[in-house]
Amino acid sequence: MNRCLALLGMAKKAGLLAVGGEAAATAVRRGDAVLIITASDASEASVRRAKTNAELNKVEHIAVPFTMFELGQTAGRGSPGTIAFLDKGLADGFMKRLTENIDKTQSTATRTKESDA
Fold first, then answer.
1. pLDDT per residue as tens digits for the range 98-113
2. What is the pTM of this model?
3. Alpha-carbon gap, residue 75 to 14, rounded angstroms
4. Of 52, 56, 85, 113, which is most buried by a Cβ count within 10 Å?
């Protein structure tokens, strides 16, 4: 399993996620959310709402390369387009792992491109 998704599962088990658009919006308004993520296949309306909530409440937002199905399987609930982290340490760990995965993907793509030349 992807390390990002594993961390997401840990956060869910610890009760430190708000899963779904309404739950995430409520967490943001209360000041509990530290990071909002949206699925790669979330609707434009969901992404727009998450971005707006994040901007108005000074919370970081990021679109992740995981589908709603993948997020739902990990978070144990349906197919959420939006999830909010309620813990800074877990959010920071998620972002670190996400960045590492992106760096690995880009590095592999570059090596493949060079070997094709």
1. 988 776 655 444 443 4
2. 0.84
3. 11
4. 85
